[in-house]
Amino acid sequence: MLIKTLTVGQLSTNCYVVTDETTMDCALIDPGAESGRILNYIEENGMRLRCIMLTHGHFDHTTAVPSVREAYPVPVYINKKDTRTKGSRDAMKWLPPDDISYYSEGDTIKAGSLEFTVMETPGHSEGSVTLRCDNALFTGDTLFRDSCGRTDFEGGNMQVLLGSLKRLSELEGDFEVYPGHAEATSLSRERRFNYYMRYALEG
């Protein structure tokens, strides 16, 4: 499994291209901006995009989806709780295309031999998910190195987020953690040093 991090947009969002190196099938996680750069990476490396997965519906994780889909009309997955309908004024939720695919707790999405399992981890937003693939966790804005996502936006809830952090911390074994912003980390490190995760475990 090859994981490429492309940090995009004004908020330095981590967009991930996760590739099965045997087949070159890949999944795209959180294309928040700079679609041309994302597409160049996929095309220059001979990858075959199979799906787009969103950890949540905030604009800095979703803005490049339409442009990417012009080149690759692949399925797009998001938790329905983070979407809105036309006419809704909830700017913190994403207005999806008509052919959107919804996923929820326990669903699995495949790209080549790679299999992603959906874990609902709300708190930063109502529909936030973590995507688990082998020994990697793509945590969106739920868990960061030494921190966690903010909860002062509409749909955010610190108590709910602490429950999600506790759930992640109680996963058996260690995982590489690929967050929505800033550098990657490991679950074992966050169990030891992340104040919010430690507080969640004590609660």
Count of alpha and pi helical runs: 6
**How many strands, what sense, and barrel or not for the largest sheet?**
6 strands, mixed
* Dominant shape: globular
Largest sheet, spatial ordering of strands: 1-2-3-4-5-6
List the domain count as a whole number: 1
Task: Give the helix level as a range of percent.
Answer: 10-25%
Query: How much of the sequence is in beta strands?
Result: 25-35%
Return the string of H and E elements. EEEHEHHEEEEEEEEHEEHH
**Structural class of the secondary structure composition?**
alpha/beta
Please tally the β strands and state the result.
14
Global mean pLDDT: 96
Folded structure, characterized:
This protein has 203 residues and is of the alpha/beta class. The chain has a single domain, classed as Metallo-beta-lactamase, Chain A (4-Layer Sandwich), CATH 3.60.15. Helix content is 24%, strand content 30%. The protein has 6 helices and 14 strands. β2 (13-19) and β3 form a beta hairpin. α1 packs parallel to α3 and α4 packs across α6 (195-202). The model has no long low-confidence stretch (mean pLDDT 96).
